[in-house]
Structures are given as C-alpha cells and as structure tokens.
Amino acid sequence: MKIIRCKDYADMSRKAANIISAQVILKPNAKLGLATGTTPIGAYQQLIKWYEKDDVDFAEVSTYNLDEYRGLSHDDPQSYHYFMRDNFFDHININLDNTHVPDGSNPNAEEACAEYDALVKAAGYVDLQLLGIGNNGHIGFNEPDEAFSKGTHCVDLTESTIKANSRLFEREEDVPRQAYTMGVQTIMRAKMILVVANGSAKQQAVYDMVYGPVTPRVPASILQLHTNCILVADEEALGMCPA
Ligand code: PGA
Q: N or C: which end of the chain has fewer CB within 10 A?
C-alpha cells in the first residue's frame, strides 16, 4: 500500500481530488466507485471547484456507490442517494442516469443486492474506488466479521457504527439498523483503490489496516493484498504509523 502523508484535512482532500481528477483526465469515461461519510466531502468540494474552472469534465463518467441504508427513500435527506446529489452530483456535469447507489428503498434485500451486483459486474467493475475507513476498520458497511464478504449484501450495522453515524442524525434511534453494501470481493476488483482518512479517531484502524494481520476482524486489512492501493491520510490518522 502506498502511503501519502498529508498535513491536515485540506491537504488530504486536495491530494485525493488530484488522484481522482487525474483518473478522469486519463479516462474521460472512467467508472468511479464513490463513498459517503464526512471524510470524502473535502475531496468532492475540491473536484467541484476544478469542474467550475473547466479543469475536469464529468460528462462521460459513471459512478457506483458503496452502500445505502436499508429502508430510506432516495429523497430522504439521510439517504446516501441524497448525500451524493447534495455533496457532489448536483454541482458537476455528470449525467444522473450514470450514477448508481444500491436501492435502499427496495425492502427485498436479496433482489436489491443481486441487481446492484449485476450492475457493477456488467460495468466490468470500477477503475478507481474511493474508500473511507470506519473506526472499527470497516470499508463500505463491511463490518468486522468471521469471513470476508463477497458481493453486495444486507448487513446489520454494529453498535460502534450506529454510534459513529448518529452524529449525522437527530437521535441515535433514527439511525437505520441495516444497510446494503458492496462486498469486500467486489471492492477488491477495483483497478485502483484510494483510501482517505483523517483525525486521531482513525489512528488504530489505519495502523491495523496497514500493519496488522490480514483478517476479516479488520475488513480494511485486506487492502494490503491489493496491487494498486493508495492511502491518503493526515498526520493525526497516521499517528501510530512509523514516519
Ligand atoms: P467517516 O466514515 O468518513 O464519516 O469517518 C468513514 C466510514 O465509516 O467509512
């Protein structure tokens, strides 16, 4: 895994945006795997600025998001469909028909997950997958488990994830308890993986991802086996890693 050390969140966001924008410049019809969460917001804001200056063009890009809460409609302000439009898609020239997020509004988990898997597979998997990392080492909503997951599936969120995500909801009880997420095997099929991490709360997870044993107890640790994975992280997130 290549590690890029950044001064702070702004530096991390710019460097991550640089890598994404380089991908789109090199391949205008790139397939981007995108992530929600607070970490990538700065990178999305930077990409929007470059789009406004005509430096990057998303007209031919298609996107595949990692995950979605089960049971939320696409217009629910807490849904990841909404998040992506609000933080990124509504501000660039992407064709919304080419943006994909698992269908959390479909209560039939098996159907929703199989449809999403078929879609990602038909696309030939993504060129670049952007990933955040959870405090417990999760990627997407692949929580610590006995085995690595494969395709898109429905998961029960762990207490630690519900707690971490409750900051974005009015009350902790409002956080959905289940989500549909791309599996670890699908994530690993991306041609390039770009992990972003900032802040001291991520120190342990980042250390375990990079230096710990490869184990489904730390889902992100499997990224050690990917041949083209880049970690862009600030000093605080890298606080336990050797300089
Ligand atoms: P965060 O979430 O960016 O909001 O910290 C990361 C994740 O849980 O994947």
A: C
